[in-house]
Specification:
Keywords: DNA-binding, Transcription, Transcription regulation. The chain has 304 residues and is α/β, with parallel strands linked by helices. The protein is built from ten helices and twelve strands. It has helices at residues 8-20, 23-30, 34-48, 64-88, 109-119, 132-141, 196-207, 221-229, 251-254, 275-291, and strands spanning 53-56, 59-62, 94-100, 123-129, 146-150, 160-165, 167-171, 186-191, 212-218, 235-237, 246-248, 261-268.
Amino acid sequence: MRLTNLDMDALRSFVAGIDAGSFAQAADRLGRSTSAVSAQLKKLEEQTGTALVRKSGRGLTLTDGGEVLLSYARRLLNLNDEAMSAVRGAGLEGWVRLGIQEDFGETVLPQVLGRFARAHPKVRIEGRIARNSELSEKIASGHLDLALAWDDGSASAPERIASLPLCWLTAAEEAPIWQADGNEPLPLAALEAPCLLRTIACDHLDRHGIAWRIAFVSPSLGGLWAAAAAGLGIALRTPVGRPAAVRVLDPVACGLPQLPSLGLRLLRSDKGPNPIGDHLATIIRQALRETLPAGWMPETPGAG
């Protein structure tokens, strides 16, 4: 029996098309023409001997065979990218210092550390989970080589690697703890100041004339999630890492302000060329692309 080797470029276009919601958007993201991406999809269907997508209204949906291939395609591409990173950085030795927001400590950090350790076993990683202000300070002082931090408005285009929606959050099982037409101020659960998201919450409430009070303060994100889950206050955060005991509030239905998106940036120290940092940055971007919805990632090929 003659074995078939799936085309890696075609697999990458297939995954990008599903993640983006259309192959036209995938073509823009990959820097290719729509016809070229369509040809790659057709090639995959010929190689697998089955249709992979079908029309559903104005969009496309996966067939049973497409669902199976998508799962394998993600794993194949991950392994391919990890192998290339390992080969290109086979001679790397030394150490690298990475800082990361608490929000990504359980979702992105394990993937990043595992892949980097497998690809570069001679490199030692020093990791730090910290608040935004601390991460920025340690990058500026040279105590961190890379940091995944929220954008406080100062990020340059290359630094900004994602845009995440902000939302109001409260206990999943509790009755509403605040009524917009009531006389009580909104109870706010927040992290200790200084906190970028705490400032955003207060500013938006003030702008809409909504009285508020700090009902709970925590030094850690875990404490904030616990307070929100217990119904002690309404929190403002992104959905990343949200526990099942916490739900997202509909701002229109609850009389709360609509919220903007919050940029995520990858900060680098300015100590000069750092090949180890370059490889770690690539792995971080790959992990984010796999973890976050496609709509939260940059649309341009070179941005992410």
